[in-house]
């Protein structure tokens, strides 16, 4: 499959000779799957929160913060809860949105686009926010999906430590699987706070990534899609 080939190319490509700093600052990544350990879900969510709170408190201690201050006291628990229940909840497959499909009753056979889906993710190299908009499109192979589910699929994959290329491909793969079609497109425009607030400190640049699958991968369809996105 095309995806498998891309994965191999990316794997073979990026690792050799790059330091940890290179990988962080150039936002290289190593695969299309989020790198997870086999035992990722051995601990329950509440055990994870307990553990993260202890470790985050340690980070704050090392930085010299006074954890007896009323304002800081609850921060380790707040961060732990936020990590597991909110901003990294997409790591756990149990949080994957349940999707129901419907017959394409209206026989609508053109592209359907859901545009400007706002998402908040986090860069896996620096753990600071990626803020962006996703545009997703598909052409029905006979089944259709509720519009809000397109949004939920974007949010699920955004709520992981991410790199934008992987986010783009993970959303596309999920839509291809659910909708049983290659005719899927995903475009993401995002701002990476690790680029704007630190490092090279470029506040105006944006990163754009795109996936054009099946019949979307023709200049005609790409132009049509881009015209809709502009309007
Ligand atoms: Zn980063």
UniProtKB/TrEMBL annotation:
Instruction: Enumerate the spans annotated as GTP cyclohydrolase I domain.
Output: 56-222
**Presence of keyword Hydrolase:** yes
Return the GO cellular component terms, semicolon-separated.
cytoplasm
According to UniProt, this protein's pathway is:
Cofactor biosynthesis; 7,8-dihydroneopterin triphosphate biosynthesis; 7,8-dihydroneopterin triphosphate from GTP: step 1/1
Matches recorded under PROSITE patterns: GTP_CYCLOHYDROL_1_1, GTP_CYCLOHYDROL_1_2
Q: What is its EC number?
A: 3.5.4.16
Tell me which family the UniProt entry assigns to this protein: Belongs to the GTP cyclohydrolase I family.
Name recorded for this polypeptide: GTP cyclohydrolase 1
What gene makes this protein? Answer: folE
């Amino acid at each position: 499959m095309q995806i498998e080939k891309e994965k191999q190319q990316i794997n073979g490509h990026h690792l050799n000779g790059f330091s940890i700093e290179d990988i962080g600052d150039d936002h290289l990544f190593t695969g299309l799957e989020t790198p997870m350990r086999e035992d990722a879900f051995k601990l329950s969510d509440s055990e994870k929160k307990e553990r993260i709170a202890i470790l985050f408190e340690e980070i704050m201690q090392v930085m010299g913060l006074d954890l007896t201050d009323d304002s800081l006291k609850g921060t380790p628990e707040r961060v732990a809860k936020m990590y597991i229940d909110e901003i990294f909840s997409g790591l756990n497959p149990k949080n994957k949105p349940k999707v129901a499909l419907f017959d394409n009753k209206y026989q609508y056979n053109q592209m359907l686009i859901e545009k400007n889906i706002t998402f908040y993710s986090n860069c896996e190299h620096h753990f600071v926010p990626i803020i962006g908009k996703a545009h997703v499109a598909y052409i029905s192979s006979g089944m259709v999906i509720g519009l809000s589910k397109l949004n939920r699929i974007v949010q699920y994959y955004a709520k992981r430590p991410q790199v934008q290329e992987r986010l783009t491909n993970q959303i596309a793969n999920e839509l291809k699987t659910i909708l049983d079609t290659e005719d899927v497109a995903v475009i993401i425009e995002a701002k990476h706070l690790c680029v704007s607030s630190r490092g090279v400190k470029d506040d105006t640049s944006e990163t754009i990534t795109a996936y054009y699958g099946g019949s979307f991968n023709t200049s005609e369809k790409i132009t049509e899609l881009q015209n809709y996105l502009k309007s």
